[in-house]
Write a structure and sequence with these properties.
It is built from 14 helices and 8 strands. The chain is an alpha/beta fold and 338 residues long. It folds into 2 domains: 8-266, TIM Barrel (Alpha-Beta Barrel), CATH 3.20.20.70; 276-337, Helicase, Ruva Protein, domain 3 (Orthogonal Bundle). Strands 1-2-3-4-5-6-7-8 form an 8-stranded parallel β-barrel, surrounded by 8 helices. The protein is globular. The structure holds the ligand CC[C@H](O)CC(=O)C(=O)O and manganese (II) ion.
Length: 338
């Protein structure tokens, strides 16, 4: 019997992990993973291109398999878990959202840069009209002070979001900064507060626990750390830690441990780790999804990925400006030849 859940986890490997595998998910991988996560009683499983619905493109990376096929496959094996989709207004459209809802997606997570919540209004309202649970996802939360973040979260609440997430896209936040942000949202909003971390500074678990301490009840994790950069808070580890703390997630610990080992690890191109480049993401405050783009640009222009990432951090380049990664690499290469 499943215990009463206190923290509801969204498993993001089938979306955030798409960045780490260059958007090469197959129907077989998604079906096997979603089926097992459903059996382990994971409440929400997010499935989409890494950059959300409509993300498959030269700019963001072409998907091997159309994400609608992946969503359909996940829905077909999930009679417990709800399938969630990510949507970044400007990349994904209302039509993409409708198609996902038609296929059986039950949760829409509408993501904007931390200062641009106003662009989520139409998408959050449409998701509600479609009968979906709605999440406002404030990305790159380290780039705004707490009062700005709160103002933006209030906008999402006013549009009808059921939950607002503090999203540490770069894995750059420190535990005290997470606490301050979650506390402010918890005090001022009447909806669920969530936290999505990245492990670039090895703080995803610490930050997640800090968020929970301040009242966050919706938490993202990626199994085997399969997310952008060094990955997210590792789901199976989080389930174990919360269980030891007496906090219920409703997820079967041994089943999720086995999925990580037997299903997900075999299709990882390489183990997820904090290496020089992923550490630089957190240190310089750069979008985790920029990692492989920077690696490719570094190779093409014979420059160091770290130098590209540090420069992107200085210029405060954000999601949607992926073309700047190549520009920066070219500039660094030119400067080195002078
Ligand atoms: C590019 C979208 C991004 O991967 C969303 C997300 O998970 C984050 O900002 O951390
Ligand atoms: Mn992420």
């Amino acid at each position: 019997m499943t215990n009463q859940s206190e923290i509801k986890i969204t498993e993001v490997a089938l979306r955030d992990g798409s960045h780490a595998i260059s958007h090469q998910y197959t129907v077989d991988q998604v079906t096997a993973t979603a089926k097992a996560l459903n059996e382990a009683h994971v409440p929400y499983i997010e499935v989409s291109h890494g950059d959300g619905l409509g993300g498959s493109s030269l700019q963001y990376g072409l998907s091997k398999t159309n994400e609608l096929e992946l969503i359909e496959a996940a829905v077909s094996v999930a009679d417990f878990s709800k399938i969630a989709v990510l949507l970044l207004p400007g990349i994904g459209t209302i039509e993409d959202l409708k198609e996902a809802a038609n296929l059986g997606a039950k949760m829409a997570r509408v993501a904007t840069h931390v200062t641009e919540a106003d662009v989520s209004k139409q998408h959050i309202q449409t998701a509600r009209d479609l009968g979906m649970e709605t999440v406002g996802f404030l990305m790159m939360s380290h780039m705004a002070p707490t009062d700005k973040l709160l103002e933006q979260a209030k906008l999402m609440e006013s549009y009808g979001a059921d939950t607002v997430y503090v999203v540490d896209s770069a894995g750059a936040l420190l535990p005290n900064q997470v606490k301050e942000r979650i506390k402010a949202l918890k005090q001022a909003l009447n909806i669920n507060i969530g936290f999505h971390g990245h492990n670039n500074l090895s703080l995803a678990m610490g930050n997640t626990l800090a968020a929970i301490e301040e009242g966050a009840t919706r938490i993202d994790g990626s199994i085997r750390c399969l997310g952008a950069g060094a990955g997210n808070t590792q789901t199976e580890v989080l389930v174990a830690v919360l269980e030891k703390m007496g906090i219920q997630t409703g997820i079967d610990l041994y089943k999720i441990m086995d999925i990580a080992e037997d299903i997900v690890a075999p299709y990882l191109p390489k183990p997820q780790e904090i290496n020089r480049d992923s550490l630089t993401l957190g240190y310089a405050g750069v979008y985790s999804s920029f990692l492989l783009h920077a690696n490719r640009a570094a190779e093409k222009f014979s420059v160091e990925s770290r130098d590209i990432l540090v420069e992107l951090g200085k210029r405060e380049i954000v999601g949607g400006q992926e073309d700047m990664i190549v520009d920066v690499a070219a500039e660094l290469s030119k400067a080195a030849r002078k």
